[in-house]
From TrEMBL:
It comes from Aerophobetes bacterium. This is Pyridoxal-phosphate dependent enzyme. InterPro entries: ACCD_DCysDesulf, TrpB-like_PALP, TrpB-like_PALP_sf. The lineage of its organism: Bacteria, Candidatus Aerophobota. Belongs to the ACC deaminase/D-cysteine desulfhydrase family. The keyword Nucleotide-binding does not apply. Signal peptide: none annotated.
């Protein structure tokens, strides 16, 4: 399953394209696996106004994961993907006890480009470090 952050309407064309790319990547990595188009599930419901534009849910996902796990997501790609995963959990599409692997593909530098959208204001607190 994947959360697509791009504002594309691939419809039925998405699974074969994604399967082809996945199989090419597997070949490059020397993995002996094949992905069938029928195994691909891609959701485009979390794009918002498009790629490069943040969503409130994506920004909230970035905050939650940073605060709870210490993992930095970017607000354009991995933040939207995590917001999709969170939504799927809330909707019961991901059941309690199921194993979920979230593949973090990077994007840390984008945090700097979108820093103004985090609207931190006086939410940043000084923390004392004990030695």
């Amino acid at each position: 399953m994947g959360i697509n952050p791009l504002d594309m309407t691939w419809g039925e064309d998405a699974p074969p394209v994604i399967a082809r790319i996945a199989n090419m990547a597997a070949g490059i990595l020397g993995l002996d696996i094949r992905v069938k188009a029928s195994e691909v599930i891609s959701y485009g419901d979390y794009v918002g106004m498009g790629y490069g534009k943040t969503t409130q849910e994506g920004m909230e996902a970035v905050r939650i994961v940073a605060e709870t796990e210490g993992i930095l997501l970017d607000p354009v790609y991995t933040g939207k993907a995590m917001s999709g995963l969170i939504d799927h959990i809330k909707q019961g599409k991901v059941k309690a006890g199921e194993t979920v692997i979230f593949l973090h593909t990077g994007g840390f530098p984008a945090l700097f480009a979108y820093s103004g959208e985090f609207n931190l204001g006086n939410k940043v607190k000084e923390r004392k470090v004990s030695r």
